[in-house]
Amino acid sequence: MSTNQPSPGDPTPPQRGKIAERLLPGGTEPDPRFTLANERTFLAWIRTSLALLAGGIAIEAFTSDLFLEPVRKGLAILLLLLGMLLSAGAAVRWIRVERSMRNKTPLPLPLIVPLLAGAGALAAAVVLIFILWR
Amino acid sequence: MAWGRTMMALVTVSAIFLRWLPHHGLPILLLFAVSATAAGAIYFTQRRRYRTSTRGITQETVDADTSAVLWTAAAAVALGGLGILVVLAA
Predict the structure, then answer these.
(1) What DSSP state is assigned to residue A95?
(2) Dihedral (C-alpha) B50, B53, B58, B62: value to the nearest 10 degrees?
(3) Of A100, A106, B41, B45, which sits with the fewest C-beta atoms within 10 Å of its C-beta?
(4) Contact yes or no for A23 and B66 at CB 8 A
């Protein structure tokens, strides 16, 4: 997974992998702390998407007394789709941020933030309306 | 530590999938297999990753771990897709 790193004192820059060359072309290596911070942010988004995936599976199973089957399945699929979008979006965000850092351009806007906030608010509103309506 | 937390999240999710085996049936074992495999892959590459990171910080240059990022995202997307199939089949 990782490329070879030179031994201490060796001024030769490390060889980049083929995937890295293709996805992150040009520019210069950013501060390693920023690259590692970008990776940590990506992993935080992945953990959020995993929570949504687990929730999607669980909600279909344990809300059989609360919701009708189509509503249950719809909610479950919504959560699973959101989890998928979030994980794909996290990878896209990681690539865009890494490219921005390499080329010293402004960081892109994190579009998955409004996506998650909007979807979460919508889901909460739907559940609230359903509870009040019952 | 971030990779360690992600590995633990995958282990937890694997356990959740197993928990709902009686409801969803055998297809949920596919999700368990994908999440457990992803957790195992992170575990077995962790030491090399730390070594690369610390060496990179010392030398002030580190190659972005593109393949790890793409594989992790692919695993999460695959889990979502399989989850949708399991829910529809239930």
Answers:
(1) H
(2) 160
(3) A106
(4) yes
User: Which of A50, A73, A98 has its CB closest to that of B87?
Assistant: A73
Q: List the pLDDT tens digit at each of the 134 positions of chain A.
A: 444 444 555 545 556 777 888 888 888 888 888 999 999 999 999 999 999 998 888 887 766 667 777 878 888 898 899 999 999 999 999 999 999 999 998 988 877 788 888 888 887 887 788 788 87
Q: Do A54 and B12 lie within an 8 Å CB cutoff? A: yes
Structural domain total, chain B? 1
Q: Which chain A residues are closer than 8 Å to B72 by Cβ? A: 42-43, 46
- What is the least distance, in Å, from the CA of A112 to any CA of chain B? 14
Plot region of B25 (φ>0 → left; ψ -120 to 50 → alpha; else → beta): left
Into how many domains does chain A fold? 1
